[in-house]
């Protein structure tokens, strides 16, 4: 399914979980892992990178890709290594087009660090602009860093009936079908939009009906594929409910849609998907609605 899997690395431990998942996903279908490191050509304020920084970053990037090559080789997975100079998210998305990449797997430092570091912003920009699905793996104490221990047996597919959610559901079900995973289709009635305690029962009923309709479309597709599927309508703050649900069923992955290229940076940062990507203890597969 994923013949070409790109994993950006920069020598930091935040990428360890992403490397393990990239290798595991590539191995499923005999694919190739592309270990890619970008040496930033500009500082955060657009200033030119000092030569001393390059002399430090270039060997580190090569060492990072070499480590991926060693791990992939141990797992019997083919690997390609590249180190380039430029603006990370631009180089990553350009690489996708150049090498016909099927999937990007990358690490993220999580909520606090994402607000103040390049890696966090790079991941969000890649999610927004990449033309292929992106799996983000956040570094946690329990993060899986060995490809041998990576398994995808249960996938949570949140939906709200939007085009973005439907596209993500399709990709998530494709993966579930390929690895024979169970699927949970979830809709969250957003209490941040409606004061559900005071709302008329008719309003709450309409919201639940809309959620059920959105779920049923994905559920039919899953059952047509012969997948085991469970559905749930929840009520609360979407990001919080989705993370709690995924934890409760011990999901291996969440598959979610994004607004895509039309979204501004601020809108992506404020989206449910962005919050889940930043805070989820489990990998998140994001699918751009413009794909």
Automatic annotation (TrEMBL):
InterPro entries: Rossmann-like_a/b/a_fold, Universal_stress_UspA, UspA. Gene3D superfamilies: HUPs. Coiled coil: none annotated. Pfam families: Usp (PF00582). Residues 1-138, 153-287 form the UspA domain. SUPFAM superfamilies: Adenine nucleotide alpha hydrolases-like (SSF52402). Belongs to the universal stress protein A family. This is Universal stress protein.
């Amino acid at each position: 399914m994923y013949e070409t899997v790109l994993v950006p690395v920069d020598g930091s431990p935040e990428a360890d979980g992403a490397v393990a998942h990239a290798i595991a996903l590539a191995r499923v279908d005999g694919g190739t892992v592309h270990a890619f490191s970008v040496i930033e050509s500009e500082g955060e304020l657009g200033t030119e990178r000092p030569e001393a920084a390059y002399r430090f970053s270039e060997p580190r990037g090569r060492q990072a890709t070499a480590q991926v090559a060693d791990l992939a080789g141990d797992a019997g997975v083919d690997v390609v290594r590249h180190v380039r100079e430029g603006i990370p998210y631009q180089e990553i998305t350009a690489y996708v087009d150049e090498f016909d990449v099927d999937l990007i797997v990358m690490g993220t430092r999580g909520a606090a660090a994402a607000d103040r570091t390049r890696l966090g912003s790079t991941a969000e920009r890649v999610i927004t602009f990449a033309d292929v699905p992106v799996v983000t793996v956040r570094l946690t104490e329990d993060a899986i860093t060995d490809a041998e221990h990576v398994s995808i047996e249960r996938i949570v597919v949140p939906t709200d009936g939007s085009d973005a959610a439907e596209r993500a559901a399709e990709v998530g079900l494709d993966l579930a079908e390929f690895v024979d995973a169970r699927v949970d289709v979830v809709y969250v009635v957003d209490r941040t939009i409606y004061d559900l305690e005071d709302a008329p029962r008719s309003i709450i009923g309409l919201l639940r009906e809309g959620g059920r309709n959105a779920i049923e479309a994905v559920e039919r597709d899953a059952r047509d594929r012969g997948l085991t599927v469970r559905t749930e309508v929840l009520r609360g703050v979407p990001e919080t409910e989705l993370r709690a649900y995924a934890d409760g069923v011990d999901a291996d992955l969440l598959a979610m849609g994004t607004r895509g290229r039309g979204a501004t940076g601020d809108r992506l940062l404020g989206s449910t998907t962005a919050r889940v990507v930043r805070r989820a203890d489990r990998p998140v597969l994001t699918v751009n609605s413009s794909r």
